[in-house]
Design brief:
Number of strands: 0
Keywords: Sigma factor, Transcription, Transcription regulation
Structural class: mainly alpha
GO molecular function, one term: sigma factor activity
CATH class of the largest domain: Mainly Alpha
Largest sheet: none
Order of helices and strands: HHHHHHHHHHHH
Protein name: Sigma-70 family RNA polymerase sigma factor
Distance between the termini: 19 Å
Helix content: 55-70%
Number of domains: 2
Pfam families: Sigma70_r2, Sigma70_r4_2
Number of helices: 12
CATH topology of the largest domain: Rna Polymerase Sigma Factor, Chain: A
CATH architecture of the largest domain: Orthogonal Bundle
InterPro entries: RNA_pol_sigma-70-like, RNA_pol_sigma-70_dom, RNA_pol_sigma70_r2, RNA_pol_sigma70_r4_t2, RNA_pol_sigma_r2, RNA_pol_sigma_r3/r4-like, WH-like_DNA-bd_sf
CATH superfamily of the largest domain: RNA polymerase sigma factor, region 2, helix turn helix motif
Length: 221
């Protein structure tokens, strides 16, 4: 797909693109990949906190969504359906890494202290240029995963409560409680300083790479 065709396709609604992909215009799927790269990256990082693994899970999610595109029933937005696939893949990977653990509200403080004591450098610290961004990124990274994911989805990706509930299979009350707990765990001094568009930014070069890799895998199906 040429540059001009890509720009034109970018204005087509998801539903029309899906129908056309199912009718054989396979190249159009790249538009859906580009539209959802940023969201999937941020949410994936909130779960796995590992750039290389997240990019791998993103590609897997995109390919699985393509393979099952004919089953998409339009009961929710395509981005919501795709996000659920990505979350499932990330949680499965986290379990394999033995990083996923059940945490009760009673041991949240202990978990935060353990994370703070580890001081493990991650790709997160390389993503932001200013000292403020690094501090904020670290504060978000130290949140327990179940709170961190809800925070990223609601506050950074601006997903609504209903969509977050659907993606994480949570009740409305649980979403609100986890978001409030996430905010409480973040230092108040940072609460008014961050810009959501700068957090876990998915650079264009990465978007191009992910899109190219996904389309290569789809072409071989």
């Amino acid at each position: 797909m040429g540059k001009r065709e890509t720009l034109v396709a970018a204005t087509i609604p998801d539903q029309e693109i899906i129908l056309r992909v199912l009718e054989g215009e396979k190249d159009l799927y790249a538009v859906l990949v580009r539209r959802n790269n940023q969201r999937l990256y941020r949410i994936g990082m909130s779960i796995l906190d590992d750039e290389e693994e997240v990019e791998e899970m993103m590609q897997t999610a995109f390919v699985k969504a393509y393979e099952h595109l004919h089953t998409f029933a339009y009961k929710s937005a395509f981005s919501t359906w795709l996000t659920r696939i990505l979350i499932n893949e990330c949680l499965l990977r986290a379990k394999k890494r033995k990083l996923a653990c059940a945490m009760s509200d009673e041991n949240v403080d202990r978990e935060v202290n353990l994370r703070s004591a580890e001081h493990i450098p991650t790709p997160l610290t390389k993503l932001l240029s200013s000292e403020l961004h690094v501090v904020l990124e670290e504060a978000i990274r130290q949140l327990p995963e179940k709170y961190r994911t809800v925070f990223v989805m609601r506050e950074i990706e601006e997903m609504n409560v209903a969509e977050t509930m659907l993606c994480l299979d949570l009740t409305e009350a649980n979403v609100k409680v986890r978001l409030n707990r996430a905010k409480a765990l973040l230092r108040k001094s940072l609460s008014h300083l961050y810009k959501k568009e700068d957090i876990l930014h998915f650079h264009l070069s990465k978007c191009d790479r992910i899109t190219e890799n996904v389309m290569k895998r789809i072409a071989s199906l």
